[in-house]
Design goal:
The longest helix has about 40 residues. The two termini are about 40 Å apart. This protein has eleven helices and two strands; from the N terminus they run H-H-H-H-E-E-H-H-H-H-H-H-H. It has a single domain, classed as Rhopdopsin 7-helix transmembrane proteins, CATH 1.20.1070.10. The protein is about 70% helix and about 0% strand. It is globular. A two-stranded antiparallel ribbon has the order 1-2. It is a multi-pass membrane protein. This is 5-hydroxytryptamine receptor 5B-like.
Length: about 350
C-alpha cells in the first residue's frame, strides 16, 4: 500500500537514493551506508518471497493442511508472496532513482500502484481473518464446527480479496490521479475522500477488529483460568509426589505431563488452547501494528493537512510495512509444530 510514498516536492539538489540514503554525489553516487541498506532491502525482498513460497509449497504438498485454518494461512502467504514478487522490486527501483522519481512510464505506474494496494490490503485482511478464526475456535467451540469453520473461512477469504480489489481499482476508475508526468511522480490518489476510505478500509477497520478479537480472547482466557482456580480442589498426595519426582529422573516426564493435563491443579486442554491462541494472536497483532501504523498515520495525515513529510521517513515507514509480509509466516508457523515437521520432510524428500 506504499505506492504513494513519492514526494510531491521534487528537489534536484537533494537526490536521495534509498531509505536513509545519501545525496547523489558526482563519482560516488552511493555511500557505504546506502549500499548496506540496499543490501538489507534486497535480502528482505528475497527472504519474504522464499519463505512465503515455502509455506505455500508445504500446504499444497501435505494433505493434512488442505483444511481450515491452513486455507487462511495459504491466502495470507499468496498475498505476501505477491508483495515480494510484484511490489517490493519496483519499490527498490524507485528508491534507487534520483529524487525517488518514477521513470518507468504511466502504464507501469498504474500497474504497480494497483498491485501495491491490492496485495498489502489483502495481507492485512488475511491477518484479520486468521485472528477471527482463532477467536471463534476458542470462544464458540460448539457452534464453530468443522463445516461452519470451512464455510466461514472461505467467505472471509473471498471478502478479503474483493475488498482489496475494490480499494485498489478505485483510482483507475477515476477517483484521483496516480501519475504525474511533469514531476515524474507515481503515488496513490491524494484525493482526501479516497485517502479516508482507502486507509480506513485497508488498515483502521481491520485494526479495530483485531484489537477487539485479542481483547475477547484474553478476557475468555482469564475468565476460564479464574473459574478453574475458584473451583479447584486440594491436590492429591500422589500428584504432589509426581511433582517432586519430576525434578529427578527424566522418565517421569510423561507422568508430569499427565498431571498437568488432567489433575485439578494443572491446566486443562481448553485452557492451554486459549493461552496458546492468546499468545499467537497477540504476537501477530503486535507485529502487524508496529509494522503498519507509522505508514498509515502519515498517509492519512499528509493529504488532509498538506503536511510535507520528508521522503526518507516515508520510505522507512513503507519498508517497515512491507516487512510485515516477512514476519507473518514466521509467526503462524512457529505456533504449529506440524509445519516444522512438514518443512523437514519436504527438504528430505527433495534430497
Amino acid at each position: 500500500m506504499g505506492a504513494n510514498t513519492s514526494s510531491a516536492n521534487v528537489d534536484t539538489n537533494a537526490s536521495s537514493s534509498v531509505v536513509g540514503g545519501s545525496a547523489w554525489r558526482g563519482r560516488e553516487p552511493f555511500s557505504v551506508f546506502t549500499v548496506l541498506i540496499l543490501t538489507l532491502l534486497v535480502l528482505l525482498t528475497v527472504a519474504t518471497f522464499l519463505w512465503n513460497l515455502l509455506v505455500l509449497a508445504t500446504i499444497l504438498r501435505v494433505k493434512a493442511f488442505h483444511r481450515v485454518p491452513h486455507n487462511l494461512v495459504a491466502s495470507t502467504a499468496v498475498s505476501d508472496v505477491l508483495v515480494a514478487a510484484l511490489v517490493m522490486p519496483l519499490s527498490l527501483v524507485k528508491e534507487l532513482s534520483a529524487g525517488r522519481r518514477w521513470r518507468l512510464g504511466r502504464e507501469l505506474c498504474l500497474v504497480w500502484v494497483c498491485f501495491d494496494v491490492l496485495c498489502c490490503t489483502a495481507s492485512i485482511w488475511n491477518v484479520t481473518a486468521i485472528a477471527l478464526d482463532r477467536y471463534w475456535s476458542v470462544t464458540r467451540q460448539l457452534q464453530y464446527t468443522l463445516l461452519a469453520r470451512r464455510r466461514i473461512s472461505n467467505v472471509m477469504i473471498a471478502l478479503t480479496w474483493l475488498l482489496s480489489a475494490a480499494i485498489s481499482l478505485a483510482p483507475l476508475l477515476g477517483w484521483g490521479e496516480t501519475y504525474s508526468p511533469e514531476q515524474e511522480r507515481c503515488q496513490l490518489s491524494q484525493d482526501p475522500s479516497y485517502t479516508i476510505v482507502s486507509t480506513g478500509g485497508a488498515f483502521y477497520l481491520p485494526l479495530c477488529v483485531v484489537l477487539f478479537v485479542y481483547w475477547k480472547i484474553y478476557k475468555a482466557s482469564k475468565f476460564h483460568m479464574g473459574g478453574r482456580r475458584r473451583n479447584a480442589v486440594a491436590p492429591l498426595p500422589e500428584a504432589a509426589q509426581v511433582k517432586e519426582a519430576s525434578q529427578e529422573p527424566q522418565m517421569v516426564f510423561t507422568a508430569r505431563r499427565a498431571a498437568i493435563t488432567f489433575q485439578t491443579d494443572g491446566e486443562t486442554w481448553r485452557e492451554q488452547k486459549e493461552k496458546k491462541a492468546a499468545l499467537m494472536v497477540g504476537i501477530l497483532i503486535g507485529v502487524f501494528v508496529l509494522c503498519w501504523i507509522p505508514f498509515f498515520i502519515t498517509e492519512l495525515i499528509s493529504p488532509l493537512c498538506s503536511c510535507n513529510i520528508p521522503p526518507v521517513w516515508k520510505s522507512i515507514f513503507l519498508w517497515l510495512g512491507y516487512s510485515n509480509s516477512f514476519f507473518n509466516p514466521l509467526i503462524y508457523t512457529a505456533f504449529n509444530k506440524n509445519y516444522n515437521n512438514a518443512f523437514k520432510n519436504l527438504f528430505v524428500k527433495q534430497r
